[in-house]
Structure formats: structure tokens, C-alpha cells
Design goal:
The chain is 24% helix and 25% strand. The protein is built from 4 helices and 8 strands, in the order βββαβββααββα. The longest helix is centred in the first third of the chain and has 26 residues. The chain is rod-shaped and about 100 Å long.
């Protein structure tokens, strides 16, 4: 008697010779009581635990990738910004709120007329002067510059008697709500210092004293 693929093959043989009435039957092998009904190959010991651990690792990797993708979506995309969200408050940039109309005259040259406009985070210069808009607007945040432009030249300062030329600059406008109406000349050392040092980023280079004709 031999077992073939879970079935029992029974064959009747007489005197070692097949009688021609060979009775062959394939009968399912029934499990013995108490051994369960699983007749297939049994899983190795610990296989289920390893499978469970593998599934846990796959789930952990998936959750990690999901968290990373969610984290990257927190980066602000300007194209997807909420148009109803409030903009930065006025004055949040490095520049003051200022509009200054400046005219520089010299008897031997054409007038130079230009406007410095500063609006929180923007700086522009329009007109004739070759001054840097950013440097000009940053200069207007300096307390000494602001005091000179808004309050004018101090009347009690001591100045050297040095003549620096006939250049005159008039400055009119507003600076953070304060009215501006002042002038700068080069008739003495104080005016020269205002022009060449204090307001160097606001005013163009002076033409100064013209060389006499030979």
C-alpha cells in the first residue's frame, strides 16, 4: 500500500500476477482524530511571527513616507497662496514711508530734478539724479539724516568758513508723515559736510567751484 498525494492506492494481486480484475481505488486519507483537518505542509515554526513583523515594517515605512509628504506640503507655494490672506502690514519692510522731491541747481549746469520714493519694502528713484534707490531709502532711516531733513540745519552750530561752491539742493516732501522743506548749500564747512557725508546717498555729487577760465 502506498500513499500518493494524500490518497491511498489499493491494488489486488493474485500469486504475483495481475488477475485482470485489479481493483484500484483512490481513497482520501482522512486525518486522525485530534490532529486537525489541515493535510497540507505545515508552516515552519515562527513563520507567522516573521510575516506579522514584515507587515508591521511595511506599515511603518508607509506611515513614514506619508508623514514626509505631508511635511513637504507645508512649504508655502506662492502660486497657491490664499488671495484672501492679509498682506504684510504697511511698514514691515526696511524702508520708511517717504516721498522727496529734490532739485539741485548750479549756475553753470542744468538743474537736476528727481524724486526719491520709499514705501516700506520698495525703493525707487525717478528723474535725473544718479543715486541708488535702496541706499537713499536706507539713509532716510538714519536718525541724524532724518533730523537734518525734517528740522533743517541747526542754527547754533559752529561751522568753518570754507566755501564749497554754488551748488544748492532743495528737498520737499514727507518722511513718515513729517513735512519736509529744507535746503542744503555749500557756503561753509557745515553745508559741505551735510552734502558730502551726511546726505551722500540722498544727493548727487556736487559740481563745486568751477575752475576760472585761463
Amino acid at each position: 500500500m502506498a500513499a500518493v498525494s494524500g490518497f491511498e492506492l489499493r491494488s489486488a494481486v493474485v500469486d504475483g500476477v495481475d488477475s485482470g480484475n485489479t481493483l484500484a481505488s483512490i481513497t482520501p486519507l482522512l486525518p486522525e482524530p485530534g490532529r486537525g483537518t489541515n493535510i497540507g505542509p505545515r508552516e515552519p515554526q515562527g513563520f507567522t511571527d516573521r510575516l506579522r513583523n514584515m507587515k508591521s515594517r511595511v506599515v511603518l515605512i508607509f506611515l513614514t513616507l506619508f508623514a514626509v509628504s505631508c511635511g513637504s506640503s507645508d512649504v508655502a507655494d506662492p502660486a497657491s497662496a490664499d488671495p484672501t490672506a492679509p498682506a504684510d502690514p504697511l511698514g514691515a519692510g526696511p524702508f520708511p514711508i517717504a516721498t522727496l522731491d529734490i532739485t539741485v541747481t548750479h549756475p553753470e549746469a542744468d538743474d537736476i530734478v528727481y524724486t526719491i520714493s520709499c514705501l516700506s519694502d520698495t525703493a525707487t528713484v525717478s528723474g535725473d539724479a544718479i543715486v541708488d534707490a535702496v541706499e537713499a531709502c536706507l539713509a532716510l532711516t538714519n536718525d541724524e539724516v532724518r533730523t537734518r531733513i525734517v528740522d533743517g540745519s541747526p542754527t547754533d552750530q559752529m561751522c568753518t568758513e570754507i566755501y564749497g561752491g554754488p551748488d544748492i539742493a532743495t528737498i520737499d516732501g514727507t518722511l513718515d508723515g513729517d513735512a519736509v522743506s529744507t535746503s542744503v548749500d555749500r557756503s561753509n564747512g557745515c553745508g559741505i559736510d551735510d552734502w558730502d557725508r551726511l546726505l551722500i546717498d540722498v544727493l548727487p555729487p556736487a559740481l563745486g567751484v568751477s575752475e576760472p577760465a585761463s
